[in-house]
Amino acid sequence: MSDTVWSYRDTTWSQDSDLVGYDVEASDGSIGKIDEASNEASGQWLVVDTGFWIFGKKRLVPAGAVTGIDHEDKTVMVNLSKDQIKSAPDYDKDEWNDDSRGHHTDYYTPYSGR
């Protein structure tokens, strides 16, 4: 099941697309803009700059939580509420490792169903 956390539900969503700068919409509103994106086969994810909403924090959202991408409007939709994203583990690029990835996998697995 954890493999679904780190891959898009539709493989065409991220092909030939740079998602950096896209807006991210939770089920109950905007959460910020994509600051980084990974398309590696073993780990597709987005880093969302939440701006003033969660001041000074970024959230890593695995691709499995993405429910759609609108390239025309430059928007990524996720199946999470703002509170679920706010409660997610903190993301620190300098401390991203297998252990922190495990925490993210545990947290996001329930939201990454097919």
TrEMBL record:
- Coiled-coil stretches are none
Task: Give the transmembrane region(s).
Answer: none
Q: Which intervals of the chain are annotated as region Disordered?
A: 88-114
List each copy of the PRC-barrel domain by range: 16-84
Gene3D superfamilies noted in UniProt: Photosynthetic Reaction Center, subunit H, domain 2
- Name it: PRC-barrel domain containing protein
Question: Which species is the source of this protein?
Answer: Nocardioides cavernae
